Amino acid sequence: MFGKTARSPKEQMLMNWPERVWIYSPVRVAFLRLHARRWKRLVGPITGGHALEIGCGLGKGAQILIRRMGFGRVTALDLEKTLIVLARRKLPRDLSHRISFFLGDAQDLPFPAALFDAVVNYGIIHHVLDWRRCISEISRVLKPGGIFYFEEIYPALYANLILGPLLRHPTEDRFHGPEFLATLEANGLGLVEGVRTTSRFGIVGAARKK
Ligand SMILES: C[S@@+](CC[C@H](N)C(=O)[O-])C[C@H]1O[C@@H](n2cnc3c(N)ncnc32)[C@H](O)[C@@H]1O
Q1: Would you call 152 exposed, middle or buried from its count of C-beta atoms within 10 A (0-12, 13-18, 19+)?
Q2: How far is the CA of 9 from the centre of ligand 1 (A)?
Q3: Of the N and C termini of the chain, which has fewer Cβ atoms inside 10 Å?
Q4: Is this model's pTM higher than 0.85 or not?
Q5: What residues line ligand 1, using a CB cutoff of 6 Å?
């Protein structure tokens, strides 16, 4: 069905090996902690509640959401089966009743509407082919007043002359800040003022479901 070099829609969204080296590194985990600290300081303390993490990879982010941000429960989802199997295996015993891992697609979240107090995106939406649909799904599963915490990067970073040839990402219909922020707004997700740190390479912020 797909030619020798053509990739299936799913393959286009998965990480290649150079990106895996980065994502599994202790430096990346330090960044996950840094973003959690930033979100907590700016949005306010969290005492319990149920968060969904999309594109959870090996599950380090989900652990940080419990241990450092204060969520009571985390449901974590990824498109790649191997990662879900490894994330379950690596889950510390004391968190096993508070974190659940699921195989699933962030373009079509397998959850009812208004289920979660928060949705967390640690840098996955730029991997998603239909990223607008992904944001509409995030809004759908959030309770009114729930928070979408996001860290995102733009083609200026992941598709530049140096990193572009090294990494694999979808190439059609990508976003920079204006498109990303306009799509949040169009889906009823209002930016939490003062939270946003943005540059030409990416954005860290939070938005509240109206
Ligand atoms: C750049 S990695 C980020 C991993 C982790 N969140 C982190 O920041 O360390 C992107 C992750 O998103 C997953 N992913 C890509 N497209 C997805 C989709 N449509 N639905 C769910 N997960 C997806 C990939 O399998 C990969 O684990």
Answers
A1: buried
A2: 14
A3: N
A4: yes
A5: 13-15, 23, 28, 54-57, 61, 77-80, 83, 105-107, 122-124, 127-128
